[in-house]
């Protein structure tokens, strides 16, 4: 009996200490974030963290080299660069950004439940998505394209894929689109991730990998793949990458201003080229830099 | 859109029923494969030859402790991608076969253990009597031990079958894109506005598939049990 009491007291003490540690942590962050001591974290969430609250949570892909990629504690890629730029315009320094993994199927969910403040994750603007979330941007217009082995000259576009093998990622319609619109006799392999597709492309079991051109360029630009693959450069769809924000957010205008400033200052162009270096990839010039669609 | 219009929209735009049919087919072929391989393994594990016992034990320990996702990924990336072994020229069929083999290989370990638990319900005296009248091991197993063992193992075999039905969704990582979890992921990606409904559809679908299997195996295990 006595032992039980001691244990309970110890657990209670430990819990109290943990709670105390948490609260002192959050007040530290508040003071770090510009001395606005009156702003509790809840309030800053309600106002969307305008002008230097504590942190901003941004959803990106963690597994897409060249766009959103986690290397240890570092995050690299085009989406990350753009997100950092936009966050800075909204008044957040890079160390106030909290990166959150946003896999394709969870993006709406993350925004609706308020787990992220915005999403930069190759997020194409579509009508269905527009119903439940808002979009700023687009900040990039990608097109579906093909990645082939660097020495393969037989594929110059989706029409050349008849009788060839093609790899794409489970749950994407990009491969189906090729089958329906361009090449009936193409054979499809669906893998869990694009890295797996690149593996079978390298071993020769498939002849091409398909998805948005900038994702392919990012894959080809990773150090391990340098010089092995090339993007065909004949895009055949139009994907407007938007910045996902919660429905009814008041930040849309501010984000669009930041994107416009980024494009005008030439930073946009340098972000693109830095993340696709060595692949010979250039964005589709007819559509890029993108025209913002307004809020 | 009201709820019924949403359901109508989802069913007309995505082949939900067809995706369940693919999983049923995967389960059917994998169950047959797992049953055959599992029986052979169980025979090996209860056989008098130590080398066979060891081989069976090694298989069960290795396969049972490897995640199914890894086995199926290994099939596609390793056996097909690197070793370049292909079962059919048609990719859809090829990866379907790979998925069936992966599922069968994995569940054979569980079938083997279920059967071995069935063998343990057969009194030792039965085996001794069978050997005493001069039956060799295989004949004794075929005529005396395994018929009783199967009847004692109906319930655990049913559980293995239920696990197999649900695990057939792992075929998604083996490039079987027409099965339920792949279709569900596609639906969620393009209709994130109906995510709760999509989950409900597939949850209900699996309940409809799995509950009868449980009921049937429970009834069978009662009816077939050897009264001792």
UniProtKB/TrEMBL annotation, chain A:
Pfam families membership: SBP_bac_3
Domain Solute-binding protein family 3/N-terminal: 55-272
Name by which UniProt lists this protein: Amino acid ABC transporter substrate-binding protein (PAAT family)
SMART domains (UniProt xref): PBPb
InterPro entries registered for this protein in UniProt: Bact_solute-bind_prot3, SBP_3_CS, Solute-binding_3/MltF_N
Entry's Gene Ontology BP terms: amino acid transport
PROSITE patterns noted in UniProt: PROKAR_LIPOPROTEIN (PS51257), SBP_BACTERIAL_3 (PS01039)
Biased composition (Acidic residues): 27-48
Gene Ontology CC: one annotated term: extracellular region
Source species of the chain: Serinibacter salmoneus
Region (Disordered): 23-57, 274-295
Protein family per UniProt: Belongs to the bacterial solute-binding protein 3 family.
Keywords per UniProt: Signal, Transport
Signal peptide (residue range): 1-23
Keyword Transport: yes
TrEMBL record, chain B:
Localization (cell): Cell membrane
Pfam families: BPD_transp_1 (PF00528)
SUPFAM superfamilies: MetI-like
Membrane topology type: Multi-pass membrane protein
Keyword vocabulary terms for this entry: Amino-acid transport, Cell membrane, Membrane, Transmembrane, Transmembrane helix, Transport
Cross-referenced InterPro entries: AA_ABC_transptr_permease_3TM, ArtM/GltK/GlnP/TcyL/YhdX-like, MetI-like, MetI-like_sf
Protein name: Glutamate transport system permease protein
Organism: Serinibacter salmoneus
